[in-house]
Amino acid sequence: MSFIVHAALFLGFVALSQACSCMPQHPQEAFCNAGFVIRAKVLSQEVEGYDRVIGMRILKTYKGATALNKTEGVRFYGSNQGSLFAKVYTSKDGASCGLDWIKNDTRYVIFGRFRKGKLWVSLCNFVQDWSQVLKRQAVRVGIRRFYGQNCDCQLALCHGRDCGKLKGCASTHLSPRKNPCEWDHSYCVKNSKGTACSWYETPKYKECMANHQP
């Protein structure tokens, strides 16, 4: 993957201004930390005070379905009540970590959180155009299946009580620039005994590792 694409992905997680800074998270770690994960089409946007309210049609829920359906601003609509509409809240601008770049009539994968009975998302969450996710097979498969099954694997560095997860995938510099193979082409999975974790070696991962040998 080109440096430009990596830089764009990295900016989704790292400081975009002095007022908004976020530590990078592997998509799997972001999935496990999220309250909900959805694929949705943006229908509308409006600013209410300090917030931006994004109207979305939820196309697929990967995590948090039960709680999501009970959240304020979520309702079924359409002739057969077969479509699910949601209001997703974010800060109104990027300086306060808001999604001010999101576009109407575009499909996104969104990792968000529940806050005071509403759906919230910020620049520190994983939010990506679905067309880009389709190009990252490991991320797509991870969202659909493997991320949720392996949330007890430790991906980020930890200290003390935060180190109760299974070891094997944590990296000192887990970022899209320093670890592009793990970031784009792999996911961390438990072994058959459930005692440790390791990066799953997809064909793209093996190819990437071969091209990044020192």
UniProtKB/TrEMBL annotation:
Keywords: Disulfide bond, Metal-binding, Metalloenzyme inhibitor, Metalloprotease inhibitor, Protease inhibitor, Secreted, Signal, Zinc. CDD domains: NTR_TIMP_like. Its main location: secreted. One of its GO terms (molecular function) is protease binding. GO terms for biological process: negative regulation of membrane protein ectodomain proteolysis. It holds the Pfam family TIMP. InterPro entries: Netrin_domain (IPR001134), TIMP (IPR001820), TIMP-like_OB-fold (IPR008993), TIMP_C (IPR027465), TIMP_CS (IPR030490). Belongs to the protease inhibitor I35 (TIMP) family. This is NTR domain-containing protein. It comes from Pocillopora meandrina.
